[in-house]
């Protein structure tokens, strides 16, 4: 499942890009960082974020191995507490590392599944709910706002935003209420961004069931989702589809 807008993607690859990928310390985020780094021009700058410094530095090492001409900035960041001002600073501090960029790319990959042992009506703790949505929705909104504030239409840069989505954004799954709600909110938010910013290429991309630690936890807690995924799992290194989407749209 993917939906996109904009026409900048036809000239995306082999250009000098400034890229931010959240949640890049493991899994899909790491695979995307590696895949994208092989496609951009030398002297591109990749900013990767995550909470685990060791894993994040491993992603940095892998990207440097795949694309030695790309500069990688590994920024330890907790998106569950990050603010708009934090994102402003992140972008300001790292944008200075690139000169004469052809375009910019923001990938919203960070996310959690929440407590899959609970049904929707069992979420009664307001703080638990607020914390979940700050990480999975609010941080996406504030980072996007900081990104588009820094790079408005007048910047004349090719601007692309990718949201890593899920079947859960459109299919209700018993036992995954907070996860489905968060994914649906993110997907709709990105559609609004596309409607309000027609010169920005926006892609809601669902890679399908991917064999990551988070997905295994979700399968364990939610039998219905495990049934959907059975026989259709992919390794996190399977990144060709999203590359093709950017080429096509």
Automatic annotation (TrEMBL):
Q: Name one GO biological process term.
A: tetrahydrobiopterin biosynthetic process
Which compartments does it reside in? Cytoplasm
Just give the chief location class.
cytoplasm
Q: Which SUPFAM superfamilies match?
A: NAD(P)-binding Rossmann-fold domains (SSF51735)
Q: Is NADP set as a keyword in this record?
A: yes
* A Pfam family hit: adh_short
The answer on whether this UniProt entry bears the keyword Ribonucleoprotein reads no
Tell me the InterPro entries matching this sequence: Biopterin_syn/organic_redct, NAD(P)-bd_dom_sf, SDR_fam
UniProt entry keywords in alphabetical sequence: Cytoplasm, NADP, Oxidoreductase
Task: Tell me the GO molecular function terms.
Answer: sepiapterin reductase (NADP+) activity
Q: Which GO terms describe its cellular component?
A: cytoplasm
Matching PANTHER family: SEPIAPTERIN REDUCTASE (PTHR44085)
Q: What is the protein name stated in its UniProt record?
A: Sepiapterin reductase
